[in-house]
Amino acid sequence: MERASGSSEAGPLNVAVMTATAGRPATAASSDAARTTQAEISAEIAALAQAYQRERTTAGDRTRPILGYAPYRSSILRHPTLEPQLVDPEGIELAAPVFGSRDVDPLEADLTIQHPGEPLGERIVVTGRITDADGRPVRHQLVEIWQANSAGRYAHQRDQHPAPLDPNFTGVGRCLTDADGVYRFTTIKPGPYPWRNHLNAWRPAHIHFSLFGTEFTQRLVTQMYFPGDPLFALDPIFQSIPDEAARARLIARYDHDVTRPEVLLGYRWDVVLTAAHRTPIEPEPDDEGVDR
Amino acid sequence: MTDQLLPFPGQTVGPFFGFALPYAGDADLVPPGRPDAVRLFGRVLDGAGRPVPDALLELWQADPDGVAVRQPGSLRRDGWTFTGWGRAATDAAGGYSFTTLRPGAPTGSAPFFALTVFARGLLDRLLTRVYLPDDEELLAADPLLSTLPAERGRTLVASQEESGLRFDVVLQGDGETVFLAYPRTPAR
Questions:
Q1: What are residue A249's phi and psi, to 5 degrees?
Q2: pTM (predicted TM-score)
Q3: For residue B56, which of B20, B9, B28, B10 has the smallest C-alpha distance?
Q4: List A154, A183, A225, A267, catalytic entry
Q5: Where are the alpha helices (DSSP H) in A185-283?
Q6: Which residues of chain A have pLDDT under 70?
């Protein structure tokens, strides 16, 4: 899956060293990682994008990330080299865990009220509807998010980015979708932040999303981005998805109808999971749309 | 079903899920002291054979009767309700450990756990199965295992050790775990 790139820095030995140290604090960062410039990473990204354009008719499903995507150094030793085995789902794979009101407090959907004071930054609402590829809403299911604060700092001990922590913002939220598959979070717009993939590497601002469907096979962990981010083209994690339209699905859109006057801005991000294999045998009570 | 919507791509769980996804009791589907509790444990390894200390595994399984339970409470366990779902982050040595029950299966089928793998450096989640090693005949007749070369199939079967069921997740290279994809079954 890894294709040759034009950069001499991308040789397997250097890559292995970089992968080994990529998770450590900045003081221990590999000098190899520090030597690879954004220009070199961008050249690798461009070469892979060109290869995809040439081979697009034979490239298979390129609407998902390429797991062995060398510009994202940490992927090199952490991706399977064999194609996934195709199998018909059986038994437990045709079901998904159930979460309920005992699991999630409704207040967990508001990340701005978890501490005594007001968090710093731009207050926003992120809302949307989760369906499967057949358009069926994913009802009463768990959605988890986590993110950096407005300064681009995670409340995680391994985040050594010297931006301020916000004592009034943790950046973790949960909710259950409603009977129409709709989730809604109130939070702070996260900042972009540097990482050690290469020299001067910055992640576009994003919110991590963890989503369940109605089947094990539909599990999705992904990242939601904000429109117009200047870092999209430079980011190997975002660019690991070869298909441009598929990448664009991860970008929320500003929605003035979600925006609340004099309070906060609204973003809408509807999510589509893969199709379920099992067809519902009997209509669920909510199919009448009483909750819409 | 001609007007299919396009599913969204995954992205890596990244290095910072540790303050968000793990929770108290996440890996204990049943209390460790329960007489019929079993330990499912092992390590996550990368392509150089090194442990992966920032992976997250999710376990989803039937109950001992082979039934997919539909019980809430996985995030705030009451100590009595078996929900069939749990989560375990790897430790500094790449190790994980669940305390759970042996899953059952319909008569004639080999029982397995369903396992989801996330990690920093892994751009999308991986799905796999962990078969119980108990019944050789059932394993030999299993529709998935019987289509795999023996050495590949072995990567999906836990080994019974004194302290429980061991299952290592090998992301790449020698002994690479078989990961699964589930194509949509043909239209009815």
A1: -65, -20
A2: 0.90
A3: B20
A4: A154
A5: 236-239, 244-248
A6: 1-34, 58-60, 280-292
User: Does A253 qualify as catalytic in the annotation?
Assistant: no
Closest CA of chain A from B34, distance in Å: 22
d(CA B103, CA B60): 10
Q: Please tell me the distance in Å from B70's CA to the nearest CA on chain A.
A: 6
Active site residue A193: yes
CA dist., res. B123 & res. A168, Å (int): 31
The DSSP annotation for B59-102 comes to EE---TTS-------SSS--SS---SEEEEE--TTSEEEEEE--
Q: CA gyration radius for chain B?
A: 17
Q: Tell me how far apart the alpha carbons of residues A5 and A49 are, in angstroms, rounded to a whole number.
A: 11
Contacts of B134 (CB under 8 A, 6+ apart): B102, B111, B160
Range B117-151 burial, b when 16+ CB lie within 10 A, else e: bbbbbbbbbbbbbbbbbeeeebbeebebbeebeee
Q: Which residues pair with A251 in a beta bridge?
A: A225
Specify the 3-state DSSP secondary structure of A33.
Answer: helix
Q: Which amino acid is at A217?
A: T
**Catalytic residue, candidates A174, A203, A225, A267:** A203
Query: In terms of C-beta density within 10 A (0-12 exposed, 13-18 middle, 19 or more buried), how is residue A57 classed?
Result: exposed
Q: For residue range A108-131, list pLDDT tens digits in order.
A: 999 999 999 999 999 999 999 999
The encoded tokens of residue B35 equal 């007489």
CA dist., res. A197 & res. A22, Å (int)? 7
> Beta partners for A126?
A185, A267
Q: Which helix (H) or strand (E) holds A292?
A: none
Tell me whether B85 touches chain A (CB under 8 Å): yes
Judge: A80–B171 Cβ closer than 8 Å, yes or no: yes
- Tell me whether residue A72 is one of the annotated catalytic residues: no
- Give residue A43's pLDDT: 98
Given A183, A193, A225, A267, the catalytic residue: A193
Give B20's contacts in chain A (Cβ within 8 Å).
144-146, 171-172, 208
DSSP assignment letter at B176: P
Kindly provide the ipTM of the predicted complex, given to two decimals: 0.96
Within 8 A of B114 by CB-CB distance, chain A residues are 92-93, 216
Selected residues 39-68 of chain B with any CB under 8 Å from a CB in chain A: 46-48, 50, 52-54, 58, 60-62, 66, 68
Residue showing tokens 């996985």: B74
